[in-house]
Amino acid sequence: MRKRHLKSHAIPAVLFITVFLVMISCQTSESNQRTNLKFAISFPEELCKEPLDGRLLLMISSDGKAEPRFQISDGPDSQLIFGIDVEGLTPGEEAVIDADVFGYPLKSISDIPEGTYFVQALLHKYETFNRADGYTVKLPMDRGEGQRWNQAPGNLYSTPVKISLDPEKEQTIEIEMDKKIPPIPDPPETKYIKHVKIQSKLLSEFWGRPMHLGAHVLLPEGFEEHPDAKYPLVIFHGHFPYTFGGFREERPDKSTEPVYSDRFDVEGYNLIQQEYAYKFYKDWTGPDFPRVLVIEIQHANPYYDDSYAVNSANLGPYGDAITYELIPYIEKQFRGIGKGWSRFLYGGSTGGWEALAVQVFYPDEYNGCFAACPDPIDFRAYTIVNIYENKNAYFLDSQWKKTPRPGTRDYLGKISCTLEEMNHRELVLGTNSRSGQQWDIWQAVYSPVGEDGYPKPIWDKKTGDIDPEVAEYWRENYDLRSILERDWETLGPKLTGKIHIYCGDMDNYYLNNAVYLMEEFLESTKEPYYNGEVDYGDRAEHCWNGDHERPNAISRLRYNQMFIPKIVQRILETAPEGADLKSWRY
To answer: Which of 215, 423, 458, 421 has its CA nearest to residue 314?
Structure first.
């Protein structure tokens, strides 16, 4: 019995030793493979004489149709990108990207198949901010491009080169960044479009340096001919605008080369945009269009192309700065009425969230909002993640399965990327919420400040594990449905008739899920009833704005014509006794 017992254990022991040796051999082989290929990246003194901080990015593409820096996306056609932080990188000094550097969509350069590729490097420059809260952080200040890392003026980059790569061979590829992205010229002014820029006292105090806010102002027809007229103000919230968008004073250029829109599956969509921009100009200057001021705000910041127009622990008091500094300045400069009843908010996507959030946080300063396809307005549906109940953002909660959560879809439900992929792309572009992308700005706006001075993560960017304490902070401060429900006794009387929300029921980012939850609450309100509107577009994708008559590709080009007449009607119906309802109605 003892002999058999010993024999029965001898075989597993041999097997264990064999497996152990194989594992060591595999690990050694993998380790050797992961260190074979390296990229040594530098910049010359004639391009920049000073040491630089920033995010050093390496792009590798199998497609030579465009520069690799313009081929990184969430979709299936994305090419490869890898990134590291650099501090005090001096001219001529080499920064190395090797197999240990995290990448997207492939996690390591050792995973790249042997082949011929186009390779490019770029340094996204950071600046040092000594904030009023005592933290010192390094961030990429916007330089007029709207936080686009691949187009930011002053960033260094290399001319793309065609290279044969074989990760299994010992190979160090030297890349010199030989170019600098030039400054962006100021947009031109016209009779109707004016540009405003002010230094914000509130933001400058927070950031410890001069910080500015800007706006593009669309003046009504007859503005100069009616010097005594004072106008209502319409705030069109949205992403960073170079100039006032969708307004074209010249006829469409017939010589323009048509460009296909993959998003809308339309050939020559750029020509359609020109056509509708010119139509807006014709409507705006026509005899029957309401005479109001319309503004688009420039509030790009070190984290994103847009501040989300609210106060934030990480971004500073953008909500107060816009409401109490920028808007009064514009109203004084361009003869706005300057009262809460004469101001209205609208926008889509980011602008949709802002329109609703600003109305909620400043209920007396605005007379209503049209919020189209808003970013998540209930964090029980943070796209498809319930940050209060789910343990992981990237995968369904399960003991045995690892089912990924989808990130984007089309109107038929076809998935183009997962939440994990979207967040991993951002992680490569920048650590500490510095990617300048969507999930990072939500985190930067909504989170408390972490111990390192950067936004405290809502979840681990690599694994997706959710931090419940951060989630609770979000609930208390930025979950719009939760705030409305908590404070309806005081907010309700100020918001009656002011909330209008629109969303496609096949929104590409699942934003309709949060709208359903918000609608449930709004329809349950009593004393007072919210008396607004929530509407859905059947099979409509992102940016649906309540237009049931036109396809999404067209309705998104008609925000102003669609909403401004409704806004004016609201203003006329709710203006206080003795208000000026005549000087601007010529």
So the answer is: 458
